[in-house]
Amino acid sequence: MAEKIGKIVLSYSGGLDTSIILKWLQETYQCEVVTFTADLGQDEELEPARAKAERLGVRDIRIVDVREEFVRDFVFPMFRANTLYEGQYLLGSSIARPLIAKHLVNIANEVGADAIAHGATGKGNDQVRFELAANALDPSLRIIAPWREWDIQSRTQLIEYAERHQIAIPRDKRGEAPFSIDANLLHTSTEGKILEDPSVIAPPHVYQRTADPRHAPDEPETIVICFEKGDAVSVNGRALTPAALLTELNRLGGRHGIGRVDLVENRFVGMKSRGVYETPGGTILLAAHRGIESITLDRGAAHLKDEIMPRYAALIYNGLWFSPEREMLQALIDHSQTHVSGEVTLSLYKGSATVIARSSPGSLYQMDLVTFEEGSGAYDHHDAEGFIKLNGLRLKSWAARNSRARSDRREPDPV
Ligand code: ARG
Known about the structure:
The protein has helices at residues 16-29, 47-55, 67-79, 97-111, 126-137, 146-149, 155-164, 171-174, 242-255, 280-296, 299-317, 324-336, 367-370, 381-409, and strands at 7-11, 32-39, 61-65, 115-117, 142-144, 180-183, 188-191, 221-228, 231-235, 238-239, 260-266, 272-278, 342-349, 352-359. Strands 3-2-1-4-5 form a 5-stranded parallel beta sheet, sandwiched between helices. A 5-stranded antiparallel beta sheet has the order 10-9-8-13-14, covered by helices on one side. The protein has a 4-stranded antiparallel beta sheet with strand order 6-7-12-11, with no helix packed on it. Helix content is 43%, strand content 19%. A hairpin with a 2-residue loop joins strand 13 and strand 14. The protein has 14 helices and 14 strands. By secondary structure, it is an alpha/beta fold. Helix 4 (97-111) crosses helix 5 and helix 9 crosses helix 10 (280-296). The longest helix is centred in the C-terminal third of the chain and has 29 residues, at 381-409. Arginine (ARG) is lined by residues 93-94, 124-126, 180-182, 189-191, 273, 275. Arginine binds at residues 93-94, 124-126, 180-182, 189-191, 273, 275.
């Protein structure tokens, strides 16, 4: 007999898995379940989720458009740090989880629920992210993770459960489930099935939102992105809200086959996993942001940012968005963006987004300093001589010791 729970708020996509979870929660805990479906720009009709939840007897159905909040409060702050996990992953799933958890917790508090539930499996990172975020936001809430609690062990048993409870099963879900897909405005992530073998090349149909770079337009497209204090604010002179801006970059990047990554990552829960990611707009944004930072950030500031970035990325990957250390790093990152404003021109062409020009009212770039022509006199070539001499001093000591050691051993020099 399950413990007594009064009301549960479930993160509900309307898909087969969460529909089964909904039914299972109602049966197991004999209580009201409120559903929360987030419109994160996953490009999926969300109204069918309402109809399905209604059919399963849910009275309080929440479908919320969180696209602006997602990009403004989660994606943009993360992009200020040029965040990449393990050098390649733009964290499209990782950054959406704390937002979903925040809404689940808020709804739970509003409706007086004592638990929240999610459909993440017991093997992935997402369970950790939902639950650590919920712990940080409301430690009193109970969290139910059906995949870790029920005795459904396989896809087949899941289908049987659905059949027993008259839950509609889409045709393609009866046989082999295709892939595990997670999509939002930032990315589409595809895992599982044939992709589980990292030695197998991903078939073309894995890619959903980017053109094959070989079939992308033969002409490069030039675009201009404007930044204000580290955040992109316009594309080609058109001011756009954060979500509209990312949508536009996704359209441009998708057309030019930008942002495909096929990688093996180290999950927080211990295993390696292979994933295929498509992050068209995000890939353009990252290149552009690095472009504007290249002229507006001092070297010391830029290098410090680059040092802490992997740490910051791991925090987000590991589900620690709501944590004191992430907030501390965020304060540092946000402070660094004070002068990160200006314009970046990029060329989009067959899978790549290349910065080709940049300018800023707060630029630190001094043409008279760097010029190969005669400069302003602020830089004295003679200073360089002493600078190199002092830097070379220790290298000379090192080289002298090496040559003494070689002669002591009386070994012939390698040819
Ligand atoms: N491995 C990625 C991460 O941990 C994506 C997880 C969700 N994606 C999925 N296809 N189920 O962030």
